[in-house]
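Field reference: sequence -> structure
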Amino acid sequence: MADDGIAVRAHGLTRSFGTFLAVDHLNFEIPAGTVWGFLGPNGSGKSTTIRMLCGILSPTAGRAEVLGYDVARDPERIKERIGYMSQRFSLYDDLTVEENLAFYAGVYGLPDAEGRVRAAEWIARAGLHGRERMPAGALSGGWKQRLAFGCAALHRPRMVFLDEPTSGVDPVSRREFWDLIGQFAESGMTIMVTTHYMDEAEHCDTLAFILAGRIIAMGTPDEIKRRAMSGDLLEVVTPQYAQALDVLASRPDVREAALFGRAIHVTVDDARAAAPILQRALTDRGVAVERVVPVTPSLEDAFVSLVETLGNSREADVTGGAS
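Structure field:
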């Protein structure tokens, strides 16, 4: 790790596949001992970035350092000092829990006795007691992910990269997995985690939103929400969401309106003043309204707002260039 306490430093990090630009000149730093979240939709460049930082892919342009080592010049030194968990379960289905842990202990060069001790510690820590002799392929998704995390962190690396670690896992298992992440972070380990689950991102110390290979926002979850949301937020609940969206989108006092689960989130200047006005406007247009209430913005609201703002900016650039 660099002497300044930065575990990862990227400057202009870029990766192309032929004519396709997957990662577009990223600049960021990850302080040691933090949980750094990389948030974005599938195909936005998260996994490609992690693979470059792990020394699996070489950058097309730019540079990055992980724990003080250059990803292009010293990929093997980086691999020795990190843990990596891919988004797909990559352990051996026909090996038992114990056998998978023993295999990875050997890969990381741990002596047999030390490997057995650490494997036993992880089994206890992850709640895998009673499953030691089960084939990994017979485990449920949540237990598989705990096992994979244990294999990635068995050698106690200074940094772990987790690529979509809870994809396809039930909500309870996701929460328990994030408890484990928190425990490791408290012990001083640096963790970079990619996810497209907005609720998970709230657990990160710092977040970076990535879209189409570019970072569009970075900061703590609260900072991002404050910067992205320039107005107040209302939640509109109605069974006629399509008609309601049409009505809301046509109003000059509505900045943005977007589906949010089973409701519509509407950005306005003043939520309390706008709520009765919008409810009346919807009712007058024959839309049945269950409620219109102020709500606190979520990260998903922030992401939608950022994407909307970015889209409007690009459209303005195109329009301006054509005139």
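Note: Residues 299-322 form the longest helix (24 residues).
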